[in-house]
Amino acid sequence: MIDDVRRILKEMGTNFDKEFQDWFKEAKQIANEVGADIKVPHYEHCQQHRANAPAYTPLQYFKLNVGIPFLDHIDQETSSRFCEENRPGRDLF
């Protein structure tokens, strides 16, 4: 089962532009429903406490600074938590 999840994450990574466009479109609809605007935060050349990859559109900004790091984080966590050395214990359940 976890192998299927990891495979899906890898597939999402190879087609991430399309996946993220779908997510962003849905987020934009929700933001419109509550009356919020999606904007690129103010860009500083020397940012210390958050990701700050330069981007000109909200789609680019959130893809580079939120979407890609989040997908990488989920992939790394599933890899480390469900590595081969941890798999014998799952058979107990």
Q: Layout of helices and strands, plus pairs?
A:
Blueprint: H1 2-14, H2 16-34, H3 58-81, H4 87-90
Give the structure's gist in a few sentences.
By secondary structure, the chain is mainly alpha-helical. It has four helices and no strands.
Report on the structure:
With 93 residues, the protein is mainly α. It has 4 helices and no strands.
Biggest pleated-sheet summary: none
* Poorly predicted ranges: none
Helix content: 55-70%
**Helix-strand sequence:** HHHH
Q: What value does the average pLDDT take?
A: 82
Q: Separation of termini?
A: 13 Å
The structural class is mainly alpha
Shape: elongated
The count of helical stretches stands at 4
Number of strands: 0
Radius of gyration: 17 Å
Number of domains: 1
